Amino acid sequence: MRRWGLSIPSDCVLCSGNAEFREHLFFGCGVSFAVWGNFMFRASLTPPLLFMDCLTWVLSPSRDPNISLIIKLVFQASIYFLWKERNRRLHDHASRSSTAIIKEIKVILTAKLDPLSRRSEFDAPDNSLLSTWFRYFN
Ligand SMILES: [Zn+2]
């Protein structure tokens, strides 16, 4: 956006410690790592650290289809809420902690997975998306 002539700070507004670029903002920043890493740590997963590698990895991150779908949703939610937090800090001069962002992602994901779990009526209750979510990620 700076190349387009927009007047925005060059430093990361999440940590103020590094230049803002895609790799840092979504994976290298301490705030981002706390959010994305929280879910990966809980599921004992170690995704690639580079954005493009992670895009490939997220296509098939696990042999368990429930875990794979949940990781895709967590990935999308993390990117969305980190970008939203970045814009909140940049434009509204307000901020939230990584803990608050994680909590919001958990609420959104639980709300998304609940109806998806109810639709898979053939899955055993202990193998539903929601039970996988609570077992590994929440
Ligand atoms: Zn940062």
From TrEMBL:
Keywords annotated in UniProt: Membrane, Transmembrane, Transmembrane helix
Domain of life: Eukaryota
InterPro entries: RVT-Znf
Residue ranges annotated for the Reverse transcriptase zinc-binding domain, each copy included: 1-36
Protein source organism: Arabidopsis thaliana x Arabidopsis arenosa
Transmembrane segments annotated in the record for this chain: 25-45, 65-83
Cited Pfam families: zf-RVT
Protein name: Reverse transcriptase zinc-binding domain-containing protein
